[in-house]
Write a structure and sequence with these properties.
The chain is mostly beta strands. It folds into 3 domains: 288 residues, no CATH class; 93 residues, Immunoglobulins (Immunoglobulin-like, Sandwich); 79 residues, Macroglobulin (MG2) domain (Immunoglobulin-like). The protein is built from 2 helices and 28 strands. Strands 2, 4, 5, 7, 11, 12, 13 and 15 form an 8-stranded antiparallel beta sheet that branches. A hairpin with a 4-residue loop joins strand 24 and strand 25. The longest helix has 11 residues. The protein is globular, with a radius of gyration of 25 Å. It starts with a strand and ends with a strand.
Length: 484
Amino acid sequence: MINRVIIIVFFISFFSNVSAQLEINSVNVNSGDLENLIVSELFGCGVEVSNVEYIGNQQAIGGFSYIQNSLYCSGNFGLNRGILMTSGIIDYAQGPNNNGDSGEEWNVEYDDVFFHNYLVDHGVIVPSVSLFDACVLEFDIFSNEFSSFDFEVIFGSEEYTEWMSPFYADAFAFFVTEINNDIDPNFDSNPINIMETGSILNLDFNNNIVGCEIENKPISAWTIRPYSEVFGLPGLNECLYLDNPNGEFCDAIGYDGYTIPMLFNLSLMPSANYHIKIVIIDGVSDYWAGLDSGIFLTNTNMTQEINTFGPPLFNYSIQNDTVSFINNSPDNSLYSSYSWDFNGDGYVDSNLMNPYFVYDQPGEYVVTLDVINNCTGLVNSIYYDISILDNTGGNGMSLEDVELEPLVSVFPNPTNDYIELSLLNIDTQSVIRLYTLSGNMVYEDMINTNNKLIDLESVSSGVYLLNITNELNKLNHFEKLVIL
């Protein structure tokens, strides 16, 4: 029996090859793509998102996914997937970083007196600087229940390190206001930027930042910087900065420098109405279109209930001429409209969640399942390759001629920081991959032996989907893996 599962998700393709590492995907700003992106990557289905508006170029906003690979990065980028907003073209965020001055788009002035004064008051730009090339995403949000969201942000820029100054400073803000009522004591009609450096929650992130005094500033290439050679000034909030000229730190990222992942929180009170304004701009003096910057933004505590890209999980069994599928997803309320095609003729054979099908003839079949995600209406398509054997062992073979089915053992599960794999009836190289329940690959390795100890210390705690493939031995094993 061939145990191969292929998952295809329609809307934004976040599948990435190993060499690319950072995969960039544009969206149609004139359709419902932006609302879907807000729901799927930032807030989930537990809130109501409305009145979505966008200012900026079609090529300045999209989604991203990232796969760590030590061949290209000496250090981990830190974010797996999310929204990417830039003051230029999003493709410039993707490595290799072989151009130190990428991008001078779009040279379009942005008139926002409040934001301009805010940046001047906080020492990001000088008063003579004008705002250009804005990428602005605005929307209203409402929740019936108390909701808390943790966001991680990485700011990257081509202004590092030779162009960083208050005369050409790109800047980012995440403004929140409460509208219509006065329910939340933390917000009112005056916009509050919840993502200033003084609000970062993870100041000892990963590299154990010590001896670094954080000065509260908006996020920009001038307020998070190393030593300024142009002005002879010491670094500012330098422990948040990672130097990446010529891709020396991570060649998968196209920016000459970027920040560590900075953690922020937004809590919503029940029945309060909020307005969100996420904006990144290019500060420009005179006529010169400054170099581009980008912001990577993701929600770190999206649960499976609000994660819109994870397909339902099925086990299946074959008894003689009958195949049966059993849904073992933790929460089936995410999905609706199950459409099964068992024999590849293009017609729906069943709409049941847990169907079975009886085949007339032995042979190789592709089972197709289309299922709709209730959160965004996106369609997930899953394919299963199966073999139906005849009474002699399948297609005229004797039972002695049937190849032994590959067997996989994973121990322990749940685990803390490692697993031991045992592969039986396998005589060639296999590949192990680890996916989040959202479908994003976070780990990949080769298996050259029948027994291998896998170190998972670098993988965060959570629930994952473990996949082991071996094309020659017709193996594609999936199972849920819990890392404590």
